[in-house]
Amino acid sequence: MYMPDIELHEATTLERAAEFKARYAPNARLLAGGTDLLVDLKARRINVDHIVSLNRIDDLRGVSQTKDGLRIGALTTITQVGNSQLVRDRFSAILDATSRMAGPQIRNVATVGGNLACAVPCADLPPILTVMNASVLLWSPEGERRVPLETLIVNVRKTILRDNEVLTAVDVPTQPPRYGAAYAKFSLRDGMAIAVASVAAGLTLNKDNTICDARIVLGAVAPVPKLVESAGTLLLGQPPGEAAFRHAAEIAMKAAEPISDVRGSADFRRELVGVLTQRALKTACERARETVA
Ligand SMILES: Cc1cc2nc3c(=O)[nH]c(=O)nc-3n(C[C@H](O)[C@H](O)[C@H](O)COP(=O)(O)OP(=O)(O)OC[C@H]3O[C@@H](n4cnc5c(N)ncnc54)[C@H](O)[C@@H]3O)c2cc1C
What we know:
alpha+beta; Uridine Diphospho-n-acetylenolpyruvylglucosamine Reductase, domain 2; Uridine Diphospho-n-acetylenolpyruvylglucosamine Reductase, domain 3; Enolase-like, domain 1; five-stranded antiparallel sheet; four-stranded antiparallel sheet; 14 strands; 33% helix; binds flavin-adenine dinucleotide
């Protein structure tokens, strides 16, 4: 497989990136780390004549603390997220996803923005960041808009991004006391393997040890990361434990819309959702307790 002839435009500002993208739309794609896009171009899954590199827009890189929580610039690599002390100290559930993504070489170039904007169902960051109530910033010459992450992806490889829009950052709010989150992934190998199924769970405990808030998001078992609100609602007011988590897992299994492919059958994926939901909830609960220990 060879790369087709493509014109590369290197943008040094967001304005230039939006201008190039809009000028050649729908025949242009933004380029970040290229670990998805270049593979898709070679495989002819995507056919465009222009790519617009964001790599010279330094403002899009980095992890920082804001007054409301954590900001990760779209061009920040998965390795940089994993190495961030702020993430390690206060948003460590994200590491469940970054530590199991691909291998070190890919993580060194693959970006957070690319992982969200590629809208591939098995991508690792959308479930855990959605569970943590993340929002994304979408910039265009008309202005910036903030949208909840769960509304970004609308179908397989389809997002709400407009032709002249760039995803510039993802914001994760500060988590309340007695909050814990976790991401559980099943893949066919330990390294360099995408998710066959994955589940992210987050919950907050009341002082009396009942659950006051819970979110569960499924990955790789539906066209988009699937927020199962009914499973979260079911847990409200309940003491955390095996019975409650099993019940939530049953709801999550019903909500999954898995397909069969070379990595596993739909039935197998649904079973995985049950196991992974309980595992993620258990870990999230342990972490919630640790915040007040
Ligand atoms: C061997 C291998 C293993 C992999 N394993 C995993 C894995 O385990 N888990 C996983 O989740 N992924 C995996 N991936 C997929 C990929 O590495 C990730 O999805 C990665 O985060 C994509 O980021 P990127 O910067 O390379 O995106 P790119 O390939 O540059 O772009 C991907 C898409 O997003 C768009 N885009 C990129 N940045 C922006 C932006 N700022 N604004 C708007 N649109 C944008 C591009 O136009 C393109 O359509 C793997 C890939 C390979 C090649």
